[in-house]
Every structure is written in structure tokens, then in C-alpha cells.
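2 proteins. here.
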Amino acid sequence: MELQELDWAGWMALPAADTLALTVNNRLARRLIADMAATLGPQQRVAELPRIVPLSVWLVDMADQLGFGGQVPLAAWRLDSFATQRLWERVIAQAEHDRPLLDFGQTARLAADADALMDEWDLAVAPTEATHEYTRFACWREAYVRQLAALDAEDAGRSAARVIDALSLDEAVPVPAHVVLAGFNEYSPRQQAMLAALAARGAQLWQLHADSAERVETSQLRRFAAADPQTEWRMAVAWAAERLRTDPQGRYAIVAAHLESDAPLARRLLEQALAARPGQSALPYNVAVGRPLDEWPVVRAALAWLETLATFAENTTCPVPVLGQALLLGQVTGDRSAQAGMVEIDVRQRRSGEVTVTQARWLERLQGANPALAQAWQQALAIWVDPGAGTAAQDWAARWRAALGLLGFPGDASLDSVGFQACEALSAALDRFAALSVLEPELEGTVALRLWQRMLTNTPFQPQRAPDARLDVLGLLEAEGGRWDGVWVLGLVDEVLPDMPSPNPLLPAQVLRQAGAPRATVDRERIWAEQMYAALCRTAPDIMFSHARRDGEREMRPAPLIAALPLAGCDWPVPAVPAALPQETLVDEQGPALALWQPEAGEAGVMRGGLDVLELQSRNPQWAFLRHRLGGRSLASYAQPGGALSRGQFLHGVMEALWKVLGSQDRLHQAMAEHRLEALVAEAAEQAARQYLDDALPAERELEKARACGIALRWLDLDAQREPFRIDGVEQAHVWRRGPLSLQVRLDRIDQVDEGRLVVDYKTGSSVAEPGRDWTRLRPVELQLPFYASVVGGVSGLMLAQLHARKVAAKGIAEHDMGVVGLAHLPDWQWPDAVPGMFMDDSSAGPAPQDWPALLLRWRTAIERLADEYAAGWAVNRAWHGADLRYCDAAAFLRLDLEDWQAEEDEA
């Protein structure tokens, strides 16, 4: 086989009708077509061009043509890369079923790569060279070939072999008179066999020097050393921006060794450097790096709605995060007009602490927010659960396409170019999944959807290159065979060119070394690096190679191939780091006051809420203003099954149900004496579970009930040892009004004892408030019990009951000894000195209380001041204790340094 060199003039002189051009990649094929079209004169509107395609595309087309005749037998199915991977996994899983720790997915990728290497590089392993890994692989490969035969299928490698056999044996297969190869640095044995077959059939083989009018003779090679990788990128982007503005018709490229990881930084710097200036338009560019198809928003939306359908089709409920993702992504009918309503559904589900939602409740919420979607939903669900439809991969693909169509996908708004291309790629992925029917004749709905999601994850997608882009940002392999007016190649440190060898572990290293297979040896990597460097040197007349001196604490060295190049200085303007603008400060701590409540006006002027209004006003007045006056807060996280919120609600329900039955300590003692207490606790847990754990899995339900019963029994043992009491109220609500405020507080339990009333508040967390710290502050927090005691009155003790699997204990304060371990007396507490300026009126909190009435008066005064502050609109952005904002859901708005506060508090 002999390849003759061909320059651009000779390339243009070849007869187009009888010429085939094979390129190393798709980008080079498009470039050759564009360059040939550019050479047409203004009078030549129509001209015949030779066929220019990547080699891989031509092999597929030739395999399809063989189906219309020929002597080489044709397989019924051709497996794409994902189907090939799937078949390898199945074969390996069957052969290694007794090795559950083996990663079948990773092993299948290695096996598919080893299989392709053996075919592409004509590898033969002698018995004396076989390793244990190769022996296992050989068994898998035999089973894989048998599976292909049983399915009457072929993969890409065997399809290419069939094409080569047809070129050699079948005279009916047409062969062009001229075959031009562009962008190839080397040819594998299989490619050499293909070219030999073409030459034997009379084809003239040519090697195109470059894809421009003249062969590139590099006139200038330079090296630039940057301080670090970030600086290297900034310099390269500044160089490209200057060249583009200096030469409006020029075409330039930035070639990065690690573009996939550097792409976010590259895009940010390019947006800044190429942004539109006054009187100018933004300079377009193209970043040639693809992302998995399932990461694009429109594809994520389709998957989210299909997952919601799949979940409701196979279960009575659906997890809230699944519904929330679909609601937020939209891309369905009515999403534009009902966007706010759909988002509101998600916000409410987050705040409610729901873990799952029933379908009836879901449809009710959809009907209120998006009636058109609610109607379409039921139709789409009917398609999903249609018992008459098949269960093969092609049947599920048809169902998904129909369901998405009924839901109005991709939505009411018009798609931009990228969104349209992503939809086209999604449709093509559905067709690819349908072709999996040969491997997957029967699939359950959820299993099928997970398999398709995996296919989308393994499918890279990159939008088409902007036709007017004059700057290309691409990787080393994508730059092969390209041609620009200037190129900057960055990231060429000694770890990159050449790279470390990475031979396939399933093949003997000696065999790979003898064949000169890619990534096999250090020498092979050096040869590849030299070839790549030579190819890069042919891409432009002006090339800058660069590297970083340091990456963090690690010292870097230039790649050996560029180490001898002359160092270049910065001869292009680099944008200076903009100086910080002078800071303008505006102190605005006063919002509009609430309208005063007038009795004759009825309820019109009343603002209702919970005690959380005063709690946040005490911690940070601006937080209270933002939450309750502006309705602003960060988006809550989704509740987790068995999480703190749902678990706490359930445990509260157990104690409520239990004390409604018991009613007093005497009846508690009676139940214990009659050995009925455990049964009563179990019954209360079952009753609460029906209300709070209805959506939990059976195993979770039983575990939570057992946990709650254990905690309740331990607490009842403490209650049984107290002085006599009876229940005066369970989950009792009280409304307090002051000015325009109407606040409601709900108490878990009120005990009547001889000395008065003891108010009990259940705390189900692993840590609870410290009354001696939180209730003695000048601006008290954890206000529920102090509020009730000071505002309602008639209370002699306050108790926080910690109900947790690790600890059951009581904390609080009482006027008299109530026989409860953990209740302090007033003299036991340390009170801070009065400090002016703690409240809006700049007054102090008064002297430290000396007796119970003074304590209640102090609390009442502080609570009334907090209420007056809030009603007056006082919204100073201040937190007097760092821990007060530890769980703040408005920290991004307040913009306060929590870490410094926490450090100060720890030191104190």
C-alpha cells in the first residue's frame, strides 16, 4: 500500500464524482467542505463536490449498502456502542455470577476495548503469553461471539470487518477511483487492510497535506510560561481576543490538553473578554466539548416527567423530590402561564415536610395550578399503564414518545437553537433505545426508564458550531488536521505530552508492546506525542505553546517537546484587574409600620401568625421582616423518609394520643400496675402512624413505631416518679393580640399540680435549648414556654421534655419544687447585666428578676417590646449572638459573617 502526497491544487483537480475523502473526525470533514465551497467563484453558484465523510461514518454507510446485495452475509442487527456495552455486561455477569463484588460495568468497558484492540491491531496471543486476565477475557469473548451469532447481530468492529471482506471479495461493491485521506497520523493494521483492498480494486490512494489552499510551513513557534493554570487561561484568552479584534477576518484556536475539566473556566473568561463593547457586537466563539445528553435542561425535564409517570404507574404514592424536579423543570403544556403555580406547589411540598404524595392529592394540586396539565396527565398515565402495549424496548420508546406528546413536551415557549438540537438528539436517543429490543424483549417500566437514562448519560451531546465563530476552543485530538491563522496550545506540561501509558489490563502487555498498540508503552506514548506535536505545528503559521510553572503547591515543568522553544513575552494587551469601586453605604433599618388594629374595623387590620414572628425578631429583626413581611426565605430542602421533621411529628402524635387516654398520673400508675401500659403505648403509636406514617414503607413504619414506643415508655417512667398531676390540656392553642398582631401558640401539654400548672413542650431532637442561657438573655429566644407563662399567666413551671432515643430528660424552671429532675429554681440562674440599646426604644431590659412574678414581668416586657418593634417595622440587620443565625434561611440576604460570630461566641 502506497499513499501519494496531494496538495490543495491537486485535490481541487480530482474529479468530484469519482473521489472519496475520508477524514479523521467530523470537524475536519466539515472544514474541508467549507473550504472547497469558499474556493468557488462568484459566478459559480452550483458545483459538484466530492463526498467528504469521517472514516467511521463511511464504514457504517458501506455496511448498509451491503444489505442490497453482495456475497458477504449480512447480520440482521447492528449494535451501537451502548448495546455492545450492554451485551458485554450480560455475558460477563453470566460467566462471573459467583463474584458479586466485580464491577460488571467497568469490566465490560475494558472487555469491549480489548475486543476492539484485538481486531483493530490484529493481535494474536500465544499460549505462552496468556495471562490469567486474558484467559478470563478469552472465555468472555467466546461467549460474546456466540451471543452475537444467536442474536444475528454484529457490533461496529465486526461490521467494519465485513466491509473490508466485501471490498476484497465482492466485485459488486463500488470503489471510487480516488480515495483521499486527511488528518491521519498513523494507520492501524485493519485500516491498512482496508486501504490495501481499495488499492487492489484500482483506487488511487492520496494523503492530503493540509486542509487549506497551501501546505502550512510554520513560521513561528514560541513558548509561554505562566505562573499557574488560571493565569495561563487568562493570557490565552486575552491573546485570542486581541487577535480577533486586530484581524476581523482571521480564524484562531485555543487548544487545551484538559478542556473537559477546564471548560467552565474557559467559558467564563471568554464571556468577559469577548463581550460586546459600545458600538461593537460580541465576538462569537465555539467550545468543542460535549456534555452527557441527560445534563441538558430540556432532556432533564423529559426524564423528570417520565419518572413521575413511572412512579405513579407502579406505586400509590410518589416521592416529593421526584415531583419537585418535574415541576421546576417544566417544558410541558401550560408551563409558561402556570409557571408560578407549579413552583408554588413545590415550595409548599418542601415546607410541609411531606415525604410522598398520593396521586389524588397530586392531581388536585395540578388542577389548581395548571388545569391543562392535569387533564393531559391522566391521558399520559393511561398510555403508560396500557395493558395491551408490549414491554420490549421499542414498545417503551413508543409509549414515552406518546406520553411526552400528550404532556405538551417541550412546552409552550419556543426553543432556542441549543434546545432544539437537544430535542433532536433526544428523539434520536429514543430510536436508539428502540433498537435495543433485540437485547431487551421484556422490560418493566421503571427498569426500562433507568436503562434509557443510562444510555443518555453515556451519550455526549454538543450543539453545532456557530457558523460565524472565528475562535475555536478544542482539545488536542479535535485539533488534529485543523488549520487556523493563529493557535495557542496550553497545558503542555511534562505529564501531558507524552502522557503516561495505560495498557488494557485484560491483554498481555508483551502482545500490546509488540503490536505497537496505542497507550501500551512509554515508547508508544512518546511516538504518539511526537506525531501529535508535529500535527499541531502544522495547524497555523503562528503557534504559541504554553505551560504553568506551578499548580498549587506542585511545581510543573514544560513538556520535553516544547522545552527548547524560545520563551515569549506578552506582546498583546492583557486586561488589568478592575479596581474596586468606592463602596456606597446606605443604612436602611426602618420598614413601614403595620396598620394599627382598630376594634371597630373588625379583623381587617390584623396580621396573623405564629410565635415565629417574635422568635425571629429577637434573633435578627431584619430576618423577621424578610420572612413575615416580604415572604422571603431560601428554598427548603426536601423532607427525607424518617427525617427529623416527620419523626418529630409522629412522636408528638404518639404522646398526644397517649395522654388523651391516660389523663393523669393516677391512671398511669394503674396502667403500669395492670401491665397495660405497653399495650396502650403500642395503640397510641399505631394511631399516630396512621396519620403521620401512612406513606412509609412497612419496614420503616414498624421501626419508627418500635423506636417511639421505647422513647415513650422511658419518658412515662420519669412521669410516674413525679409528684401527682393531672392533664389540664393537650395540644391546646392560645391566641394573643397586641396592636395589629394576632399570634397563636400551641402547647404540647399542660399539667395541673398542687403548686399550680406545669407547661410541657416536647423536643424530639438530639439537642435541645438551654433555658438557663436562652431564657435569661436580654432578648430571649425559644419563646414558646416563656410566652405562655408571662402572657396567659397561672403557670408555676416550664419544662422542655427531650424525647430522643439517645437521651430522655427534662430541662426548665419552676417556682417551687415539683419533683422533676432537671427543673431549676430562679436563684440557680445567672442573669446578664442590663445593657442599653438592646431594643428599638434604646432602653435596658430592667433589673435581674428576684422572684417568680418578677421573672414573668421581665419576659412579658421583652415580648411586648419585640411585638412593638415588629409592628413598627424596625428591621435592623443585627444578631446579638452568632448561634442565632446558625440555621438561618435568609443568610444570603442578610450577608453577615456567621463564622466570626461563632468564633466570638466560642471564645466567650
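next one coming up
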Amino acid sequence: MADRIFTWYCDTTSMEDLHGDLEELFNHDLEYMSVRRAKLKYWQRVASLLFSYAVKKRKQKAAHHHYAFTSFHPAMLKNYFLIGIRSLSKHRFFTIVNVLGLAVGMSISLLLIAFMSFLWRYDTFHVNKDRMYRVISVVTDKQRTDPLATAPVAVAQKLRDEYTGIDEVVRINSTLTAEASYKDKEIPLEGYYVDSNFLQVFTFPLLKGNIATVLSKPNSMIITEAAGVKMFNAEDPIGKVITMDEKDFEITGILKNVPKNSHMQFEVLASYQTLLQSSQANSTQSTDSWVDFRKSYIYLLLPAHHNTEAIEAYLNKVSAPIYAKEKNLRATFELQALNDIAPGRDLRYSIGPAWDYASLSIFIFLTILILLPACFNYANISISRALKRMKEIGLRKVMGGQRDQIFLQFIMETVIIAMIALVFAYYIFTLVRSEFLSMLADRVGMDLSTDFYTIAYFILFALFVGLVAGIIPALYFARLTPIQALKTKPVSKGFSGISFRKVLIVSQFALSLGFIMGVVVVLNQYRHSLNHDFGFDQENILDVELQSANPQILRNEFAKLVSVQSISMSSHIAGTGASESIWLKDLHVTDSTEVYQMFVDERYISNLNLSLLAGNNFTEDIAQNKKHAIVNEEFLKTFGIKDPAHAIGQSYVLPGGDEITVSGVVKNFHYMPLRYPIKSFFFRYDSSRFQYANIKMVTTDVFTSITEMESAWKMIAGEDKFTAQFFDDEIKATYAFYFVMVKMCGFLGLLAITISCLGLLGMVVFTVENRVKEVGIRKVMGASTTSIIVILSKDFMKLMSIAALIAIPLAYLFFDQVFVRMQYYHVPVGILEIVISLSLMFLLGLATIFSQTIRAARANPVDTLKCE
């Protein structure tokens, strides 16, 4: 019988195929034949296999189209699903490892999907969104070129008066943010001054009021529904008068609450005519000003068929002669489509939430960096376990299974795992969603709640992950021939040679080490920033916002309190980033120099214990103080003065033309955060610019002292809320962004190390399973438990060491040469950070390895060898 079958096979098979098949079978099973089976049984096995193989080859071409069709038949898909469920249930441990690995990797991807799903719907509710544009400015001064979201008011006036072909021009000013008072109630409200045609251009539904007239008169205001309830409770706001920004406004309309997916976020809108009529606005918001870019935004509504390039060319042409007269300023203008604002270019002075392409690219890169290792883990473990499923695949091939059927079977299994992983990933997503929002600077304009579309994106994403993660093992298994599938290759011991598994483990642990180093380095920078010598005292100083209080009256009343040692006044809080600069001119030089300034009184320097190197402090003579300035050491270097004493009496010209004389020199101190170098700086005196009272306290009962201050405050400022914060807390708040970075690096590091350890766990378990009999034999031969642990673990430890050798120099270069240098005054990355990061990585990695190798080494050899 065997001879007849063999003869028939030879008649139906080419000599080349026959020679290859027999040689492969014979060479592989030669030892098996001579030791385990009789010759007859061996040839019966060969004949049976070749018979099935010949039948399959004969039918393959004729049945190709039929099988291709049935592979995608619903009944076949159901069959693939059932087989996949059974296979995954049979190998529970590896299923759990793969599900957890993919779930962890997918969790950050769900954050990205929800984020992008919401972001791409920004400003889509405006009816005329395709015809709306914002005028943006590209401003160049002596030091840098900045793209701004703002534009001078004169641009709007020029377009209205002289350019035809624009349907509407809308001016917006964002200075309307202040305490709003109505009767006895005061609450902070944020909003804009806008032109009367604002609601005709932007689609913000008006619930009450006439859209054509609500903003037509000066001192008219419309309020959102939520702000109206907050301000007036159950009363009807229409006709009510509130005081805000030192002006009285009549409520003429009620707006529907502003959607979160709007790049403008406001609670009230006031007539632009109000701003123009105020004396302060007439000097700073003149309609013919081309040099003031602050808080001014211009939007255009263009016709259906418009030419933005022509408008840009016109603006740049008419503005060129104006800026040619300016020594230190140049500006050009561009039109930015409404749909390109969020996400869009990185612009300074954004009117609302700013989502720029650079930040999004970093987010996408980090997401891919976490997701891909999770997908590769699945492929790695699946291919490593290929030997366990070789007979299954070979049998299916012999029975007529096609390549596409095998491919679909393994893709189906991966999709099932990805869908299960999606459930766990969604749970992680709900846990970290609120924390993720808290790390966003513009979290007010972001909503990560899920809706139908977001859930649909999640499911599509899980299907995509199933395809990506499963395509490598599916292709690997589908390409196997029956001969390759049914022959029993010896199990590879250890990790000999360079393989995909090695590269994956090394790259994963290198990435994990990088994130761990990120957490350690950021924490060290934060500690250094708080302990840095700022050049002034911070302890026991309470900064009180003056608001409308008179500085002198406050000084007199608070000085009566026992807990108050001294009081000074200032326009800014030193060391927190609140500062301003002007262009100062030397009398002997035609060019101007940028100098930072702060307005303080005569007690400020002594109150903060600043060092006066030469000259005198401000005096009680207010008129004389306004003519003098106290400069820092860097000021001397900028203007070429070698000795502090030589600076006393030197005069300089302010932007308005007034002269100011140096009366003193202080030692350099950090008036700005440590991110910036100390530059030319001076103190000036102007009581009208004072914003804070700096109160040095001497008390053991802080709560009682502040309560006393609140009582005194009510006598001074009436209904204004007492707002105060300790100086050292304000300094800490300045560097709170480090905590955000620690959270971010910590979260990403946790994901990366979890995926790495899960992948490593799967590989260790698989290796131990395949070497269990080797371990039993070694124990019988007298090997100790320690030596077996070393044998099973050394290959993995080598890979972790290689990962460390690769990651340490790369991470060091990034953190020491790039990251920490974003802060001018920083501490370099040292050996301690590297040692701590390495220790954490090896601790987690070795714990994963030893959790399996110790158990295998302690196993009784009788149990592992009894099946032989």
C-alpha cells in the first residue's frame, strides 16, 4: 500500500519538488528513524504525509478562488472566532500577558484619540467658518521675530475705510477681565470688548435680545447664561447694571453658554465703543496706532470667492512706510483661517486655548513610542510560541487549509485580544483622564468626555491595533509549508545570535530607563530651583494685592498690627516672571538698550534684604525718587561701567523723553524665574504703579495674624476681597510646571516599564517552559539552585545591561545638554541620577526574571522528568 501511494505521489509531483521534500524529511528524521521507530512505520508516515500533500497540491489551483471566497464568509469568520477563543482560553497565561500589555499601551492612545476627536471639532459650529479669517502679525524687534495672534487696531480701520471686498471687520479687545459687582455681590468675570457686528459674524446664539442692537451703544453688555445665573441668581439680567473694569454696563442680552470647542472663551461681551470712549483707551487703543499689538484681535468675514493673498499684500504694502520710520520694530501681516487656529501655529498672545502643531506632534510621538512596544510584545511572544502551534498549522495545511485562512485565523485571535484589551485600556483612560486634563495649561477649553463618535474611534483603533500587532505572526504562520510545520525543530536554548526578540527587549528597557531618568532629573531640578539663592529673602513675607486700596492708608493701618514687622510696596513679585521691560537710551549713544524694570518704594530693598553695593536707596522725597533709579550689576556691564561707584549720577533717557539718574547699585538678584538669565534691570519709584504690599511678619500664630489683617482690610478696601499669598509659596508655584513634568514622565515611565516587564515576563516563562527538562537533568547531575537561576537568567540580564549601555549616554546627552539647559540656572545631570535610575530599572527587571527562574530552579526534577 505504501509503495502504491509513493508511486502515485511520484507520478503527480515534479522531480525537483519530490527531491526537496524527501531530502528535508529524511535528513530531519534520520536520527528519529534509527532510534525511535522501525523502518516500515517510518515509510508509512512518509507515504501518508506525501499523499495528503499531493492531493492538496493537485487541488490548490482549482480551488484557489473558492477558498478565497469562503475565507471571508460569515460562517467561516464565526469559526475563526470560536477557534480563537478556544486557543486563547487554552493558553491563559500568555493571553493575560498580551491583553495587559496591549491595554497599557492602548491607554495613552485613547487619551490621544479623545483629545484629537475633540480638537478637530474646534470652531466648527460657526455657520460662516469657511469664510472667517484672523489677521495675525509677524513682529521683528532687535532681539527676535515673533508671530503674534494680535494685530494693531489701525489694521481694522484701514481695511474698513480703504479696502473693498471684505464683508465684515470685527475688532476684539481682551482687557475686559475684572471683578464684576452688582448690589452686594462681587464675582470675577472674563470677557472681551467687541464690535457691534460680532454676533453677525460669529455663531454664538443669543437667547434674549436683538442681535442687531445688543452691542450698538456704549456701555452695553451681553452675558452668558451661566454667568447670568452666577451673578443674578434667579433674576432676569436684562436691564440690570453691573460695574466692571471701573465702568457701568447695562445688560442688553443673554448668550447661550460658549461651547468648549471654541478658541474664544468668555462670560461677557461689551460694546467696543465703551473702550474707545474711556480716557485710558483713547491713549492706548487709538484707531491709528500701528505699534500697539497688546490685547487687540481682528477678524474678517470674506465673500464666498475671496483672495486672501491680495489682502495680505495690501496690508504689508500700506504698513511698510509706517514701520520704516520705527527704529526697533518691523511687522508684516498674514491671514489665518478660522479652521487653522486650533490646532494651528504656535502664536504668542493667543486669545484662548492654544493647541499648536509642535505640542501635538510630541504627544503623537510619545503615544507611538508606548504603543509600538506593546504591539511588538504580542508579535514577539506569539512567534516565540510558534513551536507549540506547529502541529496545528501543519495539520490544517495537510487538510487543505489555505494561506489566507491561516492568516485570518491568527488575525482574528489578535483582534479578539485587542478588543478585550480595549476594555481594560478604557478603564485606565477613565482613571487618568482628569489628571491628564489637570496637566494641560489650557484645560478650560478641553473636554475628554466620550460620545458616540469617540467610542466608535476607540473601537476602530482597537481593530487597527489588532491588525498591526497580529500581522507579523499571522504572516509567519501562514507562510509555513506542511513539511516545515510538522517537523519538530529542536528548541533553541537561550538567545543565541541577534534576533527580533533581543532587539525588542533591549529597546523597551532602554526606553524605560530614559523615562525613569526623566523623573529623577526633573525632581532634582525642582529641588535645586527651590533651594537656589535668589538674592533676596522669601521667608515670612506676605504679598497682599492692593486692588483699589490706597498704599499709604494700608501701610498706616497694617503697621498697627503686632505681627507686622515692616511693609513695602512693589509693582511686581520678584522671581516669579512678572516683570516688564523698556528701551533705555544712553545720552552718549544713539542706539537703545532693553532694560527690565520694577516699581518699588523706599522700604522694598531693606524689606527683602537686597544688597546695596553703591549709592543710596530711595528717600521719603517722592518727587526726587521719580527722577532716580537703582540699577543692578548687569546694568553696569551692559553700559560699560566697571565700578559701581562710577554709575552714580549717570543719566539715561526713558522712552517718553524724560531723563532718569542712577542713585544706587544693588547686587544682582533674580527678578525673573531661573529659566532666564539676569539682564539689565533697575528699580523705579511711582506709587501709581504699586500693585502689592510686601508685609514681613513676625508671629507664631499665622492664622490669627491673617484674620487680623482681613479685619483691617475691610476698613481700608470695603468690599474688595482680601487676596494674599506668602512669598515662598509664590516662588514654589512658579516652578510647579516641574511637577507636571514629573507626572508626565512618571506616567509614561510607568507605562513603558510595565510593557517592558510584561514582555520580559512572557519571554522568561516561555524560555523556562522549554528548558524545564534541561533544568531537571542539571539538578539530577548535581547543579545547585543558584547556578540554575544564573543559567536561566544570564541571557536576560545581558540584554538589560546592553539596554543600559545604550540608554545612559543618550539619556545623559538629552537631559544634560538639552532639557536642563532650558532653564538658564540649572544643576547638571550627575552620577547619582544615573545610579538611581539604573537601580530602579534593574530592580524591576530582575524581580520579573527571578519570579519565574527561582520557581523553575526549585522544582522537583522527578516532576519535570517523569514524562520521559
